[in-house]
Amino acid sequence: MSNDHPRQSGRTPEGTPAPGGPPRRSEDFRTALRRSRMAAVAFFAELLVLVGIVALAGTRLRLRVLVAEQSTVQVFRVVLFVAAAASVLLARITNGRMFARARAAGGEGDRLIVLNRAALSTLASSMVPAVIGFLLYLFAGQVRDFYLLAFVSLLLLFFYFPRPSAWEAVLEDRTTSCPL
Measuring CA to CA, which of 15, 42, 144, 178 is 20 to 30 A from 58? Predict the structure, then answer.
C-alpha cells in the first residue's frame, strides 16, 4: 500500500487513471512487451558474442582467408555491403508495414500479437548486417568491415527496441512523434 496521495500518483481514488495521468496497461500488454524486450536483449547478446568471437579470433587465431585474389575480395565485399544495406531497408519497411497492420487489427489482443511479430521481425532483420559482417570476416578477413556492420546492427537494435509509448500509441490509434 502506498502513502502517496491519489492525485500525485496519476490515479483517482478508485484506482482508474487520472485524466492527465498515464494510461493503465493490461497484463497482456506488459507480457507482450516483456517478451519482445527479452528478444531484443537476446539479439544484443548475440551481437556481443559475435564481437567476442571476432576479437578472440583476431588475437588468438590466424584465420586462413578463403578468398585469395584481391579483386574477388572487393566484389565479395560490395555484394555483402549491398545485402546489408538491403536488410536495413527491409527492417524499415517491415516495421512501418507491421505497425500499420497492427493499427488495422481488431482488438487489443490482435494488436499485441502483431506488435510482437513486428518487434521480432524488425529485430531479426536488424541483426543481418552483423551476421553479414561476420561472414565477411570469415571469408575475407575483413575485421574493420565486421566492426562497421556490427555498429550498424547495434544502432538498428537501439532504434527498434520495443518502446511502450509506441505500442500504446498503436493500441490507442494515436500517431507517434517518431514513427521509427
Answer: 42
Question: Does an H or E element contain 176, and which?
Answer: none
| DSSP-assigned letters across all residues of 103-134 | HHSSSHHHHHHHHHHHHHHHHHHHSHHHHHHH
Predicted TM-score (pTM) of this structure:
0.74
Give the H or E element holding residue 40. helix 27-60
In this structure, is residue 126 part of a structural domain? Answer: yes
* Domain total in the chain: 1
Q: Whole domain around residue 74: which residue ranges?
A: 27-165
Looking at the predicted structure, is the pLDDT value of residue 3 above 70? no
Residue 175 in any domain: the answer is: no
pLDDT higher at 18 or 161: 161
CA distance 161 to 43: 10
3-state secondary structure of 26: coil
